[in-house]
Amino acid sequence: MNTKEYQKGCATLINTMTSHHLKKCLIDTNKRDNLPAESEEWEVAILQGEVVLCESKDLHVALVMSEEKYQRMVHNYSLSFAKPTSKPLNFHYFTKVEEAMDWLVNEPLAKE
């Protein structure tokens, strides 16, 4: 997959999330090829920026990644990933799908 195809896929994901007013979403990145660091930063920025535009009063996103990618993300953490939003937007990062599913199932949504 090239960068244009990847960005088109992300745009489709965001459109699906916003048009269907999703409350909870799991994104498993374990089966895709590694992205350059710039693309990973773009991915997080676009998800945090664009998903905020959805009409949901509350959105929980569980992003599953490899342990290596998680450690790299923690090591390279940037305050640019932590933008304040006017809507509750809960991004949580996991290395196991089961843990992500457990969080999505058990984490209560904000009262509307």
Word description of this protein:
With 112 residues, this protein is of the alpha/beta class. The protein has helices at 3-19, 37-50, 67-75, 97-106; strands at 24-28, 59-64, 89-94. Strand 1, helix 2 (37-50) and strand 2 (59-64) form a beta-alpha-beta unit. Mean pLDDT is 75; it is low at 83-87.
Main features:
112 residues, alpha/beta, three-stranded parallel sheet, globular
Q: Could you give a short description of this structure?
A:
The chain has 112 residues and is an alpha/beta fold.
- What amount of the residues lies in strands? 15-25%
Listing every helix as H and every strand as E from the N terminus to the C terminus, the arrangement reads HEHEHEH
**Shape verdict:** globular
Radius of gyration based on Cα positions? 14 Å
Q: How far apart are the first and last residues' alpha carbons, in Å? A: 39 Å
Count of extended strands: 3
The strands making up the biggest β-sheet line up spatially as 1-2-3
Instruction: Note the total helix count.
Output: 4
Segments where pLDDT lies below 50 for 5+ residues?
Answer: 83-87
Average pLDDT reading? 75
Largest sheet, described in full?
A: 3 strands, parallel
Summing up helix and strand content along with how strands pair, one would put the structural category as: alpha/beta
Percent helix, as a range, is 40-55%
